Amino acid sequence: MVRKLFLAVAVLGALTSCKKPTLADKLEGTWQVNDISANGTITVGGQTLPVVADDKTIDPTSVFTLVNATKNTPSVINYNFNATMSVNAITQVIDFPFSNSGSGSWLVKEGEATVLDSVIVTAADGTTTRYAVLLLNESLVRLRTRQIIDFQGQGVNAQIEFGFIRQE
């Protein structure tokens, strides 16, 4: 009887210790930015034109570090990215700097049926940015968001995609 009880407790312990990792568990860590693309529209001389930009260079120190919440601490994010984006204009290629850095908190919202999982980042200044999770595996993440980008003094409402690789 004691042996059966011990075996049942051992099996129960093994089952509870093998819980499936959550979305937040999978995202925790340091991720290097390795791909950025953006598209949107800009109005020039009363005419609305498409803007499509791809990264030309990304500083290798461009990383997002996500620390998952514990019982007594919130989830924390630190981020820094510096890139040069290239826009193919009708007659020329225009390069512009694209960078951001800061810290704050983050949380995940699991998607349902036709809705993608999301990562919601609240920066230290209180601004909130929502990222749709397009791809997530052990070594790669791809996120999409919508932001206003300053391009030659005008705000471009752009859809931006970031690709990341996990850092060791």
Can I get a quick summary?
The chain is mainly beta and 168 residues long.
Task: Please provide a written account of the structure.
Strands 1, 2, 3, 4, 5, 6, 7, 8 and 9 form a nine-stranded antiparallel beta sheet that branches. It is built from two helices and nine strands. The model has no long low-confidence stretch (mean pLDDT 86). It is 12% helix and 61% strand. β7 (128-136) and β8 form a beta hairpin. The chain is mainly β and 168 residues long. The protein has a single domain (21-166), classed as Lipocalin.
Keywords:
single chain; 168 residues; mainly beta; Lipocalin; nine-stranded antiparallel sheet; 2 helices; elongated
Segments where pLDDT lies below 50 for 5+ residues? none
Question: Main sheet?
Answer: 9 strands, antiparallel
Please identify the top-level CATH class.
Mainly Beta
Question: Considering DSSP H and I runs of 4 or more, what fraction of the residues is helical?
Answer: 10-25%
Element order: H for helix, E for strand: HHEEEEEEEEE
Number of helices: 2
Average pLDDT rating: 86
User: Which architecture name does CATH use?
Assistant: Beta Barrel
Secondary structure tally: strands: 9
Alpha-beta content class: mainly beta
Find the CATH topology.
Answer: Lipocalin
**How many separate domains make up the residues?**
1
Q: What is the terminal separation in angstroms? A: 47 Å
Tell me the radius of gyration: 21 Å
The fraction of residues assigned to DSSP E strands is over 45%
Apparent shape: elongated
